[in-house]
Amino acid sequence: MFGNYAGFILASYGVTAATILVLILWVLLDGRKQTKILAQLHERGVHRRSERTKAATHS
Amino acid sequence: MTETKQPSFRIRGLANPTRFLALLDKIMIPLVILTVVVIGVGLYMALIDSPEDYQQGATVRIMYIHVPAAWLAMFAYTMMTISALGTLVWKHPLADVSAKAAAPLGAAFTFVCLTTGSFWGKPMWGTWWVWDARLTSMLILLIIYLGLIALWHAIEDPIKAGKAVAILTLVGFIIIPIIKFSVDWWSTLHQPASVFTLEGPKMDNSMLIPLMVMAIGFTLLFTVLHFKAMKNEILRRRIRSMQMQAARQVASGNRAAATQAASPSTGPSASH
Amino acid sequence: MSAMGALFVRDLKLSIRIGGGALMGVLFFLIVVTIFPFAVGPDLNLLARIGPAILWIGALLATLLSLDRLFQADQEDGTLDLLLLGEHPLELVVLVKCAAQWISTGMPLVVATPLLSLFLNVEPVGIAAVTATLLVGTPALTLIGAVGAALTVILRRGGLLLSILILPLTIPVLIFGVSASLGAVTDPAPFDTPFYILCGLSLLYLVIGPVAAAAALRSSQE
């Protein structure tokens, strides 16, 4: 439907989609990784200073 | 980033990273839905609904992603400049996070702009690359983005790295327009004006409207990615400071500190 | 002001001393210009045409490569802390250090340029033009390079990163320097317009360089 230039148009949109997909995957996977480490730290009992008083009443 | 207790950070509500994260969680889903809808509409208009250019044929459809990408490439740098001012002048705790999250996004959209420009140039100019003023300036912008990212990774202390990058960002903000000017000057000196410019000055509404929709969609997409990357960065810094704090407690001889950190009076390091 | 004079003389002495690297810059310049004909061929007409460009690239690289120790040596032996604590504004200190750096590494390049131009078959007017543009342009390179040197001062191996960060910012200087040099030898192209723009750029970098480098040094030593 794009005439003789279909290849170039599809390649352009393809590269754009791929780049955006990589960005989305990057932020999602990075976010998951950070949340996981944070949860592990909480499990080991490391807390932020602001959370410490809260944690004290629990333990 | 964990200095949430300092009163100066409460001046503006969003300066508090915790409050910022809470706000993000609230607006993220509506924002994502809006982005998907706008880009969906934009793609329909760009690929199916809009007419072909009488001169460039269907290749004009590349414009609907090329121009928004170019816009974002510059928008991201402006964003980083404002963040750099925030880091150096106002010492806003989120400014540095914002700049660090924006840099890879800016580099990625600059890359998209260059590649789509190349795919557009091949059928129009007959070569993949011409040392056209606009393309060349974009290439230099990409190199500057990559340099900034490299500087971030080279300096270990995130606070020092953020300041160094902020200084370089501001220097770049002053010099980039001069680079643009000199590349334009150089380009007119070395080659005759190209047969036609990629974006004609007068554009029919049938093309302008899809272009605007795509530009808004791309900007929304950038905002979503930027917010999410900022959130990741805040968490990363939180983790870093927690790990260092835990290591300090271990090092101070109180081996059990990690589990007993609960009571504030446990070790000398807790007061730091 | 005498303190600044003392700093200037000290920096000059340190860089002229064996191992200080002042002569290394000229040697590097010489070898870069020498290897170009091996890459592009010994055609004297071609060399005459691209000669100013080769000389500018050589001078640009020589200036940048000699810059990575500008603040690093001072940081290692603690001088930098004294300079930061001193009563003189850090911007002035940076400016004085840049001046000493340029006298010891930039000026020898300018002096060597006429001789190297002969190797490249550049005609007399062109030789004068390249030398003049380098005389005006290399201080700008040193000043903007100082920003990179200050940003990478805490890194152990900052030389490569310094070049990556600073080379894009030197593009305007390169463009107008080479354009003015070529303008002097090729007829329709002007010499004075790019030359005046080059002078303007040097003045601008004279402001940006010390201010940004001083800010970078302060933030790195906090």
TrEMBL record, chain A:
Keywords: Cell inner membrane, Cell membrane, Cytochrome c-type biogenesis, Membrane, Transmembrane, Transmembrane helix, Transport. InterPro entries: Haem_export_protD_CcmD (IPR007078). One of its GO terms (cellular component) is plasma membrane. Required for the export of heme to the periplasm for the biogenesis of c-type cytochromes. It is found in: Cell inner membrane. One of its GO terms (biological process) is cytochrome complex assembly. This is Heme exporter protein D. Belongs to the CcmD/CycX/HelD family. It is a single-pass membrane protein. The chain crosses the membrane at residues 6-29. Pfam families: CcmD (PF04995).
From TrEMBL, chain B:
The keyword DNA repair does not apply. GO terms for cellular component: plasma membrane. It is found in: Cell inner membrane; Membrane. InterPro entries: Cyt_c_assembly (IPR002541), Cyt_c_biogenesis_CcmC (IPR003557), Cyt_c_biogenesis_CcsA/CcmC (IPR045062). GO terms for molecular function: heme binding; heme transmembrane transporter activity. The keyword ATP-binding does not apply. GO terms for biological process: cytochrome complex assembly. Residues 25-190 form the Cytochrome c assembly protein domain. It is a multi-pass membrane protein. It comes from the Bacteria. This is Heme exporter protein C. It comes from Cohaesibacter marisflavi. The gene is ccmC.
TrEMBL record, chain C:
GO terms for cellular component: plasma membrane. It is a multi-pass membrane protein. The keyword Transmembrane helix applies. The keyword DNA-binding does not apply. Its main location: membrane. The chain crosses the membrane at residues 21-40, 46-67, 102-120, 126-153, 160-183, 195-217. GO terms for molecular function: heme transmembrane transporter activity. It is found in: Cell inner membrane. Keywords: Cell inner membrane, Cell membrane, Cytochrome c-type biogenesis, Membrane, Transmembrane, Transmembrane helix, Transport. It holds the Pfam family CcmB. PANTHER family: CYTOCHROME C BIOGENESIS B-RELATED (PTHR30070:SF1), HEME EXPORTER PROTEIN B (PTHR30070). Required for the export of heme to the periplasm for the biogenesis of c-type cytochromes. Belongs to the CcmB/CycW/HelB family. NCBIfam families: ccmB. This is Heme exporter protein B. It comes from Cohaesibacter marisflavi.
